[in-house]
Amino acid sequence: MSKIKIIYNKELDVQRVINTIKKIDWFVENKYEYKKFSFPKVLDVEKLKNYSDKEIENAVISEYDEEIYKKNETFLVNNWGKILEEIKNSFSKSSILVQDEYIIYFTKYGTGGSYNLPNTVIINLNKRWNVGMLGTIIHEIIHLAIEKDILEYKIEQWQKERIIDLFFIKNFSRRVYIQNVYNSINTEKIDQTFEDNFPDMEAIVQKLSK
Hints:
Helices cover 54% and strands 10% of the residues. It is α/β, with parallel strands linked by helices.
């Protein structure tokens, strides 16, 4: 059984805010509405780039509440076996791998969720909690499973997100949530390529790179 290691602390939250602010230009370029992300309430979202690291640290500490993290940790631990079984079943159909361990970082800031290779998932508990958190974790674990192919075939950001959403719809229909971003791209080719080649995820990614 794949293990999970859940981590949360003030230092992580501070770094999450700093890293999110550093990526503002990238978010704008890729049509994310970053002003709707989660930031400490005392920070002015219109002036995020003006704050020092120390000001950000003080803002995070002023509203840090460990009880929120503990409640969600308990919920995830109690439900991990169930969602892991769902993940294993869906991945086995597509010959993508479940890892031996996932590191789950809880925060209250930034986007709803994100991931870092090789096995890290970051969950924003201000955006996703309890059942919603489980869906986001699955979404990010799918990302981790196909990221090697995404990088190899140089798939663009919203192509990648659409592939993840389509896999999610196909395999986790009762947990599905769809990102409201597709006014930015035409998904017709992605959708057709997915349908024609599923469950071969590498083939889907490879053909979309052409």
